[in-house]
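Throughout our pipeline, every protein is held as a single compact record rather than as scattered files. Such a record has a labelled line for the sequence and another for the backbone structure tokens. The remainder of this section carries one protein's record, kept here as part of the documentation:
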Amino acid sequence: MDYKSVVERLFERHRSVQTAGFSADAYKPGLEQMVSYAKSLGNPQDAFRSIHVAGTNGKGTVCSMLAAALASSGLRTGLYTSPHLIDFRERIKIVGPDGVEMIPENAVCDFMERYDRAGLSFFEVTTGMAFRWFADRGVDVAVIETGLGGRLDSTNIITPLISIITSIGLDHCSLLGNTRAEIAAEKAGIFKPGVPALVWGRDSETQPVFEAIASRTGSPLYFAEDFDLPAPPADACLGGTEALDWRVALSALAILGQSGYSLETVADYKLATGLRGRWEQLCDDPTVICDIGHNPQALAANFARLEAPRPLIVVYGAMADKDVDSIAPLMPTDAEYILVQPRTPRAMSLKDLALKLKRLNFTEQQSVAEGVREALLRARELPGPIIYIGGSTFVVSEAISYFESL
């Protein structure tokens, strides 16, 4: 089978959270099945050093910053993140001094032919694929992002050099807990005996949780706010939550005693690692920005970053399980909105989305591509507008595909 057919079969045979939501056959919490699967693969996760990253927001950015730093210091660095936006292979990369290599198409096909097993979740299969390829390619270290939570996440079979938690917000509450303290406990499930643990900072709700779990596991606990760190290069544009992500990534490197990396490369982490959809500029005239942030914490930072004395057009869509009622008060009232419904059964209908955002000035477009097109046409009538595209990974993915088709 060719690569396209293999990936289609992967999605059909192993339902993913990205497409099916947190259904019983797509989300399978627990490690027993992953431990057994890894054993059948030869326990590849034991063949390389690793860094483990969990968190509500920023974990993909922190992973990419760390990979960029390690690669700039001369290390061949595996990078496992999710979700992908255009190509499945975006999830599994090696970042080295000479650039980025996504897992080759033939490696995906070979793995599925040899190691596919019925009954696994999509994330279990892809995690096994990443670990096996990193081991086969002899990476020096791999930066591993959790899929959801931490304690029961498929990636939590590694014993890393350091465990990192980037932030704690109220997201996926039905699965992780209804308070930040409960969610923190799930995320801190990646702490390992004797392994340093780093969290972004202190607050009264989560600090006692982290301290109790670190004490129980014997993990030296660090807070990123305590480190004296170099500022980003003067020309770096790290807005929103990226400034916090910068602090977390550099704190982790300090704990590991890692030196010799390039601050410029860390600041330019998206170019260094090929990460997409994180405050990505898709067009210069007009200025078009897309970002996959979808919960209140991430969107509040993004909307604050958009404040400027110029017209703003927002192309916005959401998944049906998202707390748009909490997001709506954060959305700028002086912007012009084009509401869209991405192509996935998980999408919130335009009718429901419009009802939740009824206080805003909006029009509706069933297609993301048509929504983007209408925004571009409208922008030509305005002096110096900004178009922001977001609310969902699916909206951003379709928008990127639209621009690449032009």
